[in-house]
Every structure is written in structure tokens, then in C-alpha cells.
Design goal:
Elements: E1 3-7, E2 10-12, E3 18-25, E4 33-39, E5 46-51, E6 58-60, E7 68-73, E8 78-83, E9 92-99, E10 115-116, E11 120-124
Parallel strand pairs: 2-11
Antiparallel strand pairs: 1-3, 3-8, 4-5, 4-9, 5-6, 7-8, 9-10, 9-11
Length: about 130
């Protein structure tokens, strides 16, 4: 069974930075597209970024373009989300998700994902 564990969340001041990690176990991450999603209190979950297994497809939500960067290191089975210039509206629980069917043949990697982590909270506040 594929398992995902997020880490790296925490409290940061506006303008600050964090790097989230999604560690994959139970199977090699190289076979899966990985997405980062977030859910703020009282709001629906939204996609933040995703990356296909071959790295050909990388998508970002408009709200994070230029500030967030997704990257994967399949030698370590980890997918990262580097976040800079964080703002209070970025406050949410961040989840990573994996699916073997997303981002194939150059298609966008958004969509439904089969496997999810438990989430890591990010709070941006002064």
C-alpha cells in the first residue's frame, strides 16, 4: 500500500519561506504523479501544484505561480514544495497526493488522486 507523509509545515511570518516534503513509501515514487493540495478552515480543498512522474508536466494554481516550486527526487522518494513570499491567505493544511494516472502523455496533472497523506499545517501570521 502506498503511503504518503507530509512534513515541513509550521508557523511563518508574512514574506517568509517554508519547504514541505512528501515522503513516499510502500512503492517507488517514480511511478506516480504527485500533487500538493491545501484546505483552509471553512474552505474547499484546492490544488496548489502537481508534477507528472516524468516531470514533463508541472502545474501551479494561479495564486501561487512565481512563489511556489514543486520538485521531485525519486532517488529519495520525496516530492518537495518550496514556498517563498508566504502570505496569510496561504494558511491551510497542505496535503500531498499520488496517482499513477495523472499527467500522462503531457496532459495536466490535476484531477482525482487515489492516495493521500495526512497533511501538514502551514500558518502565515505576524
Amino acid at each position: 500500500q502506498l503511503q504518503l507523509v507530509e512534513s515541513g509545515g509550521g508557523l511563518v511570518q508574512p514574506g517568509g519561506s517554508l519547504r514541505l516534503s512528501c515522503t513516499v513509501s510502500g512503492f517507488y515514487s517514480m511511478y506516480f504523479a504527485v500533487g500538493w493540495y491545501r484546505q483552509a478552515t471553512g474552505k474547499e480543498r484546492e490544488g496548489v501544484s502537481c508534477i507528472s512522474k516524468d516531470r514533463r508536466v508541472i502545474n501551479y494554481a494561479d495564486s501561487v505561480k512565481g512563489r511556489f516550486t514543486i520538485a521531485r527526487d525519486d532517488t529519495k522518494n520525496i516530492v518537495y514544495l518550496e514556498m517563498i513570499n508566504l502570505q496569510p491567505e496561504d494558511t491551510a493544511v497542505y496535503y500531498c497526493a499520488a496517482d499513477a494516472k495523472r499527467g500522462l502523455d503531457g496532459q495536466p496533472c490535476w484531477g482525482s488522486y487515489d492516495f493521500w497523506g495526512q497533511g501538514t499545517p502551514v500558518t502565515v501570521s505576524s
